[in-house]
């Protein structure tokens, strides 16, 4: 049987080999394919590269023919996201662990300690190392186990596969490329599929892509007409198509390929592709062919390599570790030289005559020195805190999983979104942020778009006044009457529409001076869009699903103006129009949509070509003002001029504007163009680029209709949050793609800029640049802009310095647009740019591309070496989020891409206050404490050994028993420091927010400077001397009335006891708040030591070990001397610290200490959390909230802080624990497109 | 899991009659706990002047009396120290001390006379003190085999005993190793006038060593048979557990200067008593320039003459009391109101950074 298959495969390989091999273009099919590609791709200079170039650029799939596909050996559909398997776990896991320098170091020390050079038994280093490794490996195994279970549940999900002539249920993992599958409603697509047919008429299906990008609006996919009849299994089994398509890649929104059926080649667009992870909606079932499986699906290819970030504190920690290595080295050198000098035959009792091993051979002192060097490295290895990294990891993990993810103050009730720490590497980085780069739309503003005003034919409609205008008027001293009751009866406020002007509402426009323009205006709004209507087809009940809230708002506006768009079929748009002539009568008009020229960020416009029922061909276009104005027909200067004025007026009111235009087309014009369009559409390579080029051909000679203005509402609490953050010394930069006026006004609204602020503006909208543009020479334009940018940068910088000197308190703001920024980022000007922007309190960059956002972030990050944070909500913020030290995604609002790229996800901008000022600050303080404490305790311990070395003839004799040394870090001093890392807080959360200035201690890195470390180091030095000499003094006299003498091991046990007690007490001394956990852990650690030594010294084992410490503790405890020393040594040791702390607090108090004192009599705060939201809850919500507060079962979902983006959340949501979405949560399609573009730019 | 999914897909739970339960299941609101909200009840110690002064004062008040008591105890101890290594070398050999000690033909006998400075109550402890003797040298410390000492069945086990593992002909040495090999072998005989002061050499080692580390049925064998004699020889008829000098010697000292208990004299000595010590000056400290001292000492509950602990307590206690006053004074001279917001950094530099 199997041999038959093999045989078959060989034959098939022979048959297909030529086609698959890129070089073997000898076969007929191969040549045909190559030539076609060449013809279609030859149109333009193909700059776009395949995202993942692979040897064969084309994949050929034979649908419904497993045997034909078998020779190629496509990967199966089972996915595995686990890092390890049962077999590889140990080797691979250990390898991963030993990639850490600290672990590798201890491995080397452990190996060294098995040699006779070592003064210590291997156990000393092996035990702590194994414990550390064990903890890390258990963590890894646990995480991997979770991933594995996840995979299993996915791989074993069932799907209907065509077997012969009927559907058979099979697990996902059995799927193969080329299989025909049937997907039922509300189930997920098991792999990337080619959509063949649907139960819906017109071969349409609706999909939800929430798992990919978080967009909950439904998207239409349309099957190729040729395959529509494959719905029933009999037909489907007859389908033998051949798909030729690109190799698997990670670009979610592109697909190029052809379907060859019956010798006919049909281009496949992304419109026929169903991606794994999406789900089917509103369709009974569909039939589709598998094209990419398992790890080759686009969603899986997207989930690869996340750039991992390390916190600045950890980088500084590396320096500290290096310093410790240097100290270690110095100590070893001193000791080694000493040993070389000391060793001498005269010490006859050392038996150094005759044959002596190299280490002690007095005849070769140099070798002695070298070997002792190694001995001492082994002995002093404890100076590097082995458990530091694992402790930090543990602390950070709990901080994320338990504190940040569960903070009620950061839970957004409306969108049901808690905060989410997606990485646990960066907690303390949050406490040191100095620059915040914020996206505007969706982050500072709500991205809830409401149609607010419009301008038609040179007339402004809409009487509303925006918040920004109100604010501006108030600043100017004008009182504006803001009484809701005064609004006219015609005012309508619904979702997406907040407009009041009786002149045009409900068809009243026909009495206006320019009714034709109004009709065009409304038609354009009603036709030129990609909105999907949902629900009942009445104006009251319909809801619009749109890729962007702007679009929905525009369609809603058209509805309110009497052009009710109520149904979309794949080829038509149905609009219920108020009759143009007669008031009150309506007619349903079907506009045939011939072409849709979609929106993307390069085009900045969107057009449809439609055919009126009377056969008239019209192109409707809407887009950004500059893009539309460029393409207007000549003439009609008046309306252009007034429209421009209106646009500026809207812009200054903080409104988002779009221009509407149309163009009548003749049939010939259209048909000749459409030919090119179809050609471009079916091209295999550079399809997007060609489509854009073709679109240019028809989007010209437009006639301006008017423009719309949409209000973009500020998020709740943004101004207050920004004010708090500024007080904390954080500088906030707004990076937006919006117009300069809008951006400045948002900056005003957010109190980033006020009237006292001195503004430095660099814009490309100057006369000089306009003149240059009019001349049209691109080189000339570039030169002019560059010169002007250079000049203004220089003069502004001088002015800023001057202003800083004359009026130091004055706020400065710097505003630049994207075009100038491009030149300012030039290496020659970068220094000035950086200099100026660092002086200014706030910086606004408008009209910037995603890439520029990232450039600005890395400019500050790398150029100024400040800690930066980027916050954004959309795909266009992804690069910025990844470029900054900390990336924050706004969750629950827009698409998931920003969240997927982020390190932390919060639901609202205002939660930054909690995230930074509370969690960040505490994490920073705690980690500083943990690290410095680790440094101190290990240094103290090691230095006692060092002092002993001096009195052992530099022989490297160990002071402590092996087990003392090995358990010191992992048992006797491990737990309390973790408690500090978790629970220590200097001031309460509310005080942290009340005194945002406290945050500056983090920005200045007050608690992890060399000075701080030096202080700890000094006291470690002092304490070690106390421990060593106070206890060493013991060995010289009898201790007790028996007159017996203590030996070395008695002394060292006593010293060790003092060290353990002191080091634990020292921790307690440095705590700002001491919970019962602290008491337990400190007392527990000390008790653990005594328990250990009581047992350890009481037993004799049959193992071959020296019973040095047998009974020592009992011997010690029989003397008074022991108790007196145990009381004395810690007190003297801590005396210095105590004195230092008292003086420091009294004379040079830290800010937090003053705040502590100011509020020391405040009651405990834990009654202070009531409702996390100050939002108004409806009675029903309030009730469910109250119920939610009742005790209940723990969620099984514990947060996936370590998980890779994309993939995990998809499956998490499949199990019902996904990221929440609001019903109106729609994302801009623009953001998807920008993401795509950015992927290109990122790769090219 | 299933039920929550069902609730999730049902329309807000209106159909299943229990919307509250559905809402409760659907909410992602974190559960309140003092732990997750970081509001665990905690004591928040603030190092106020009151605390500083009280702590210093308290420490002082406790330490000074302890110091006084310890010091008094140490003062009660009478200690006679006699360095004899140089003095016992015959006058003609002072330039060649090594030759003297290594020459077995020269008698090592030596007589020292000690005068009791103060009344000494029995028991009087006899110690020998060695200087510059690195019993804690790594090569030395590890050169022993505990298993061999405590188990006669493992008498052949001499691992880690280099270079004193076996005799030249390969027989295992018991006890092996450098420590045993270099056993101290000076002997002292005390006379007051004509009265012989018996030195009791019983119970000079710790009981735990005697009973557990050195076995009753292990006897020395092949000991000090090699070419080089490191120190004392052992009577091979006495089990190791009774060889107390060896046991004492093998509890190695922590520092290169150390005392070991030699024995006890159960006789009260009077002030100005003269004691003659007949000693055998056998042990070679001359090669490495070590000193040898004989120490007669009484002991109190705190042990031998050790002022260190008393002084330390007294000094620290005194310093604490001083600091308590100093801090009080500081607070009077340079007062700082608690929680004075003028001390906040942003109030000190109002212009901001």
TrEMBL record, chain A:
Its EC number is 7.6.2.1. The chain crosses the membrane at residues 320-343, 366-392, 930-948, 968-987, 1008-1031, 1051-1068, 1080-1099, 1111-1135. It is an enzyme of class 7 (translocase). ATP binds at residues 439-441, 551, 599, 622, 656, 736-738, 847, 853, 876-877. It is found in: Endomembrane system; Membrane. Its cofactor is Mg(2+). Residues 61-125 form the P-type ATPase N-terminal domain. One of its GO terms (biological process) is phospholipid translocation. It is a multi-pass membrane protein. InterPro entries: ATPase_P-typ_cyto_dom_N, ATPase_P-typ_P_site, ATPase_P-typ_TM_dom_sf, ATPase_P-typ_transduc_dom_A_sf, HAD-like_sf, HAD_sf, P-type_ATPase_IV, P-type_ATPase_N. One of its GO terms (molecular function) is ATP hydrolysis activity. Pfam families: Cation_ATPase, PhoLip_ATPase_C, PhoLip_ATPase_N. It comes from the Eukaryota. Keywords: ATP-binding, Magnesium, Membrane, Metal-binding, Nucleotide-binding, Translocase, Transmembrane, Transmembrane helix, Transport. Mg(2+) binds at residues 439, 441, 873, 877. One of its GO terms (cellular component) is plasma membrane. It catalyses: ATP + H2O + phospholipidSide 1 = ADP + phosphate + phospholipidSide 2. Residues 1232-1244 have a biased composition (Polar residues). Residues 13-56, 1224-1244 are annotated as: Disordered. Residues 899-1149 form the P-type ATPase C-terminal domain. Belongs to the cation transport ATPase (P-type) (TC 3.A.3) family. Type IV subfamily. PANTHER family: PHOSPHOLIPID-TRANSPORTING ATPASE DNF1-RELATED, PROBABLE PHOSPHOLIPID-TRANSPORTING ATPASE. This is Phospholipid-transporting ATPase. It comes from Brachypodium distachyon.
From TrEMBL, chain B:
It holds the Pfam family CDC50. The chain crosses the membrane at residues 51-74, 311-333. It is found in: Membrane. InterPro entries: CDC50/LEM3_fam (IPR005045). Residues 1-23 are annotated as: Disordered. One of its GO terms (cellular component) is endoplasmic reticulum. Keywords: Membrane, Transmembrane, Transmembrane helix. PANTHER family: ALA-INTERACTING SUBUNIT, CELL CYCLE CONTROL PROTEIN 50. Belongs to the CDC50/LEM3 family. This is ALA-interacting subunit. It comes from Brachypodium distachyon (Purple false brome). The gene is LOC100821898.
């Amino acid at each position: 049987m199997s041999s038959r298959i093999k045989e078959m495969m060989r034959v098939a390989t022979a048959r297909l080999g030529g086609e698959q091999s890129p070089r073997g273009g000898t076969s007929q099919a191969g040549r045909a394919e190559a030539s076609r590609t060449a013809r279609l791709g030859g149109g333009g200079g193909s700059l776009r590269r395949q995202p993942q170039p692979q040897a064969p650029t084309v994949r050929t799939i034979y649908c419904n023919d497993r045997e034909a596909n078998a020779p190629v050996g496509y990967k199966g559909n089972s996915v595995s996201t686990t890092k390890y398997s049962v077999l590889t776990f140990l080797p691979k896991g250990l390898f991963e662990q030993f990639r850490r320098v600290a672990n590798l170091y201890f491995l080397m020390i452990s190996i060294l300690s098995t040699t006779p050079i070592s003064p210590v038994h291997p156990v000393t280093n092996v035990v702590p190392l194994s414990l550390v490794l064990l903890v890390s490996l258990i963590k890894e195994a646990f995480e991997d186990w979770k991933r594995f279970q996840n995979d299993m549940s996915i791989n074993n999900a069932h799907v209907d596969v065509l077997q012969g002539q009927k559907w058979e249920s099979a697990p996902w993992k059995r799927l193969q490329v080329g299989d025909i599958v049937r997907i039922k409603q509300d189930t997920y697509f098991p792999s990337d599929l080619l959509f063949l047919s649907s139960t819906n008429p017109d071969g349409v299906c609706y999909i939800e892509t929430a798992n990919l990008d978080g967009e909950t609006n439904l998207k239409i996919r349309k099957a190729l007409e040729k395959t529509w009849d494959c719905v029933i299994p009999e037909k489907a089994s007859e389908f033998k198509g051949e798909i030729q398509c690109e190799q698997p890649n990670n670009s979610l929104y592109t697909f190029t390929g052809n379907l060859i059926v019956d010798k006919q080649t049909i281009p496949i667009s992304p419109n026929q592709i169903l991606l794994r992870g999406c789900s089917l909606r509103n369709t009974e079932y569909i039939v589709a062919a598998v094209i990419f499986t398992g790890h080759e699906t686009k969603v899986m290819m997207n989930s690869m390599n996340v750039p991992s970030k390390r916190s600045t504190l950890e980088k500084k920690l590396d320096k500290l570790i290096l310093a410790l290595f240097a100290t270690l080295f110095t100590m070893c050198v001193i000791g080694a030289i000493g040993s070389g000098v000391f060793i001498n035959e005269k010490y006859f009792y050392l038996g150094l005559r005759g044959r002596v091993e190299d280490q002690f051979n007095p005849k070769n002192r140099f070798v002695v020195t070298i070997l002792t060097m190694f001995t001492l490295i082994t002995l002093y290895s404890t100076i590097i805190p082995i458990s530091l990294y694992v402790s930090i990891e543990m602390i950070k993990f709990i901080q994320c999983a338990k504190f940040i993810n569960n903070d009620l103050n950061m839970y957004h009730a409306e969108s049901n979104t808690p905060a989410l720490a997606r990485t646990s590497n960066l907690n303390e980085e949050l406490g040191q942020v100095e620059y915040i780069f914020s996206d505007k739309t969706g982050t500072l503003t709500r991205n809830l778009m409401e149609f607010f005003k419009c301008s038609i034919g040179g007339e402004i409609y809409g009487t509303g006044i925006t918040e920004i205008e109100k604010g501006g008027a108030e600043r100017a001293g004008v009182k504006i009457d803001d009484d809701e009751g005064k609004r006219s009866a015609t005012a309508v406020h619904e979702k997406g529409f907040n407009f009041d002007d009786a002149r045009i509402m409900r068809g009243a426009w026909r009495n206006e001076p320019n009714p034709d323009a109004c009709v065009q205006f409304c038609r354009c709004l009603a036709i030129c869009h990609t909105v999907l209507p949902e629900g009942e087809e009445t104006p009251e009940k319909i809801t619009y699903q749109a890729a962007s809230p702007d679009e929905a708002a525009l369609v809603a506006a058209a509805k309110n103006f009497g052009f009710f768009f109520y149904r979309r079929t794949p080829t038509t748009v149905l609009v219920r129009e108020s009759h143009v002539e007669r008031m009150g009568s309506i007619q349903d008009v079907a506009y045939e949509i011939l072409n849709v020229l979609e929106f993307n960020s390069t085009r900045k416009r969107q057009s449809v070509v439609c055919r009126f029922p009377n056969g008239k061909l019209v192109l409707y276009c809407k887009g950004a003002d500059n893009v539309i104005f460029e393409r207007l027909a000549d003439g009609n200067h008046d309306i252009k001029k007034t429209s421009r004025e209106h646009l500026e007026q809207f812009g200054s009111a903080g409104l988002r504007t779009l221009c509407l235009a149309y163009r009548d087309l003749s049939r010939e014009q259209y048909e000749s163009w459409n030919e090119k369009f179809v050609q471009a559409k079916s091209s295999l390579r550079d399809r997007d680029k060609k489509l854009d080029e073709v679109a240019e051909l028809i989007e010209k000679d437009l006639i301006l209709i008017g423009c719309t203005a949409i209000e973009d509402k500020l998020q709740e609490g943004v101004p207050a949050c920004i004010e708090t953050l500024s007080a904390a010394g954080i500088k906030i930069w707004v990076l937006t793609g919006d117009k300069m006026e809008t951006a400045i006004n948002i900056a005003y609204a957010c109190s980033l800029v006020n009237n006292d602020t001195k503004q430095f503006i660099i814009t490309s909208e100057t006369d000089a640049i306009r003149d240059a543009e009019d001349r049209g020479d691109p080189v000339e334009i570039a030169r002019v802009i560059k010169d002007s940018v250079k000049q203004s940068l220089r003069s502004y910088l001088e002015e800023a310095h001057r202003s800083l000197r004359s009026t130091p308190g004055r706020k400065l703001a710097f505003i630049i647009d994207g075009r100038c920024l491009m030149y300012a980022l030039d290496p020659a000007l970068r220094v000035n740019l950086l200099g100026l922007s660092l002086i200014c309190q706030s910086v606004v960059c408008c009209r910037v591309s995603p890439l520029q956002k990232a450039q600005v972030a890395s400019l500050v990050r790398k150029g100024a070496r400040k800690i930066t944070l980027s916050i954004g909500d959309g795909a266009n913020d992804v690069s910025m989020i990844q470029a900054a030290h900390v990336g924050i995604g706004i969750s629950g609002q827009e698409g998931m891409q920003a969240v997927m790229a982020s390190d932390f996800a919060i639901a609202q901008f205002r939660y930054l206050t909690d995230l930074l000022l509370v969690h960040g600050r505490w994490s920073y303080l705690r980690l500083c404490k943990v690290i410095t404490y680790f440094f101190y305790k290990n240094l103290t311990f090691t230095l006692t050994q060092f002092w002993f070395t001096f009195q052992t003839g530099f022989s490297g004799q160990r002071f402590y028993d092996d087990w003392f040394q090995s358990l010191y870090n992992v048992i006797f001093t491990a737990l309390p420091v973790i408690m500090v890392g978790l629970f220590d807080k200097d001031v309460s959360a509310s005080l942290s927010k009340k005194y945002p200035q406290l945050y500056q201690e983090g920005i200045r890195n007050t608690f992890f400077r060399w000075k701080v470390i030096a202080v700890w180091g000094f006291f470690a030095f002092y304490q070690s001397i106390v421990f060593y000499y106070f206890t060493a003094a013991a060995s010289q006299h009898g201790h007790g009335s028996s007159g017996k003498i203590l030996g070395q091991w008695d002394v060292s046990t006593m010293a060790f006891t003092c060290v353990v007690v002191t080091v634990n007490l020292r921790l307690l001394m440095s705590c700002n708040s001491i919970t019962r956990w602290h008491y337990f852990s400190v007392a527990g650690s000390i008790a653990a030591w005594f328990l250990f030594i009581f047992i350890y010294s009481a037993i004799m084992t049959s193992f071959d070990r020296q019973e040095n410490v047998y009974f020592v503790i009992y011997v010690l405890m029989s003397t008074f001397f022991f108790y007196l020393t145990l009381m004395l040594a810690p007190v003297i040791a801590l005396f210095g610290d105590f004195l230092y702390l008292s003086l420091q607090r009294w004379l040079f108090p830290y800010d937090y200490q003053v705040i502590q004192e100011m509020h020391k009599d405040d009651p405990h705060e834990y009654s202070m959390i009531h409702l996390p939201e100050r939002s108004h809850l409806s009675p029903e919500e309030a009730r469910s909230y109250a119920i939610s507060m009742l005790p209940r079962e723990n969620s099984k979902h514990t947060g996936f802080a370590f998980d890779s983006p994309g993939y995990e959340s998809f499956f998490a949501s499949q199990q019902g624990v996904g990221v929440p979405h609001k019903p109106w949560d729609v994302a801009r399609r623009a953001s998807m497109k920008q993401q795509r573009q950015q992927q290109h730019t990122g790769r090219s | 899991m299933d039920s929550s999914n069902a609730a999730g897909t049902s329309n807000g739970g209106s159909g299943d009659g229990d919307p509250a339960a559905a809402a409760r299941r659907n909410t992602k609101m974190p559960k309140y706990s003092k732990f997750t909200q970081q509001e665990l009840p905690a004591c928040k110690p603030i190092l106020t002047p009151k605390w500083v002064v009280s702590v210093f004062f308290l420490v002082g008040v406790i330490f000074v009396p302890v110091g006084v008591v310890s010091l008094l105890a140490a003062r009660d101890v009478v200690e006679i120290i006699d360095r004899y290594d140089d003095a016992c070398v015959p006058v003609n050999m002072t330039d060649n001390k090594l030759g003297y000690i290594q020459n077995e033909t020269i008698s090592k006998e030596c007589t020292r006379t000690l005068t009791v400075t103060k009344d000494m109550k029995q028991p009087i402890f006899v110690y020998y003190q060695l200087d510059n003797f690195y019993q804690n040298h790594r090569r030395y410390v590890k050169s022993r085999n505990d298993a061999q000492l405590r188990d006669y069945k493992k008498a052949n086990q001499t691992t880690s005993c280099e270079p004193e593992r076996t005799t030249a002909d390969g027989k295992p040495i018991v006890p092996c190793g450098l420590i045993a090999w270099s056993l101290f072998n000076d002997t002292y005989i005390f006379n007051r006038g004509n009265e012989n002061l018996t030195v009791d050499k019983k119970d000079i080692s710790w009981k735990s060593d005697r009973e557990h580390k050195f076995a009753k049925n292990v006897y020395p064998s092949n000991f000090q048979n090699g070419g080089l004699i490191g120190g004392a020889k052992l009577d091979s008829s006495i089990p190791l557990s009774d060889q107390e000098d060896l046991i004492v010697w093998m509890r190695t000292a922590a520092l290169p200067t150390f005392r070991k208990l030699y024995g006890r004299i159960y006789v009260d000595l009077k002030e100005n008593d003269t004691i003659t010590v007949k000693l055998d000056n056998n042990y070679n400290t001359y090669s490495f320039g070590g000193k040898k001292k004989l120490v007669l000492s009484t002991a109190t509950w705190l042990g031998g003459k050790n002022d260190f602990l008393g002084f330390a307590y007294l000094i620290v206690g005194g310093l604490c009391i001083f600091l308590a006053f100093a801090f009080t004074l500081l607070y009077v001279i340079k007062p700082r109101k608690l929680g004075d917001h003028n001390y906040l950094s942003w109030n000190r530099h109002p212009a901001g950074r």
